[in-house]
Every structure is written in C-alpha cells, then in structure tokens.
Design brief:
Layout (H helix, E strand, L loop, with lengths): L4 H16 L1 H8 L11 H9 L3 H6 L7 H19 L7 H4 L3 H18 L8
Helix pairs in contact: 1-7, 5-7
C-alpha cells in the first residue's frame, strides 16, 4: 500500500518542528507545559521513528526532491547513531544539551526548511 505523501509530509513537518525547537523541548520535557503536553525525549524519538523515513525513501514514488532525500538521510543517520548509543529511556537532563542532540536539532531545522519549501500545505 502506497503512502499518502501529503499526509506523511504534514506529519514529518510537525515532528521536525518539535525536534528543532529547543525551547519547546525544555518546556514539555521538564514539566513546564502546564499539563497541555506530555512528552519526553523517548517519546520525541519514537514519534520521529514512527515516520518510517527509510521505508518512505525506499518507495519509488515518494515525490521528494534530491535535496529533501539528502537531508532526510542525514537526519536519519544522526538519529540512528543517537538511538544505537543511548539507553532506551533517556532522561531529559541527559539529552537536552547532549552535542548529538544539538546536532540533530540543527539538522531538523535544515530538513524542515527543504521539506516545507514551495509547499503551502505545510507552512505554519
């Protein structure tokens, strides 16, 4: 079954915004969301993983341009490295300033920019 790429792209943009937003992470990971959000580093990583980026990139009709593919692969590689070298459940205070997570946040900004360009449906 083919993936509806419009739905996937909207989900990806939403998730990338969350990964790129350090202030939001500090608020929701450390309990400052006033009960509106329940989140943790583990939840953030799992939500990204739910995007199934490798599977999407393997689909011949994914509709992503070459730059989007490059940036998604770079982010996927950074996330894979983090997951492989981090406990299954990591505390917010152990991840928020981790240099690997900082690099992931930066890459999420880049990936978000290329994924949302020229697409009014995913603009804020």
């Amino acid at each position: 079954m083919a993936t509806d790429m419009n739905i996937w792209r909207r989900r990806a943009v939403d998730q990338l915004r969350h990964i790129a937003d350090e202030d939001l992470q500090r608020m929701v990971w450390f309990g400052g969301g006033g009960g509106r959000w329940v989140d943790s580093p583990t939840e953030t990583i799992c939500s990204y993983d739910d995007l199934l980026v490798p599977r999407i990139l393997a689909e011949p009709d994914h509709g992503l341009d070459p730059e989007q593919v490059v940036q998604l692969r770079r982010l996927e590689s950074l996330m894979d490295d983090l997951v492989e070298n981090t406990p299954d459940s990591i505390r917010p205070e152990d991840l928020i300033d981790d240099p690997r997570w900082r690099e992931i946040r930066k890459q999420a900004v880049v990936t978000l920019a290329v994924l949302s360009k020229d697409d009014a449906a995913v603009q804020p």
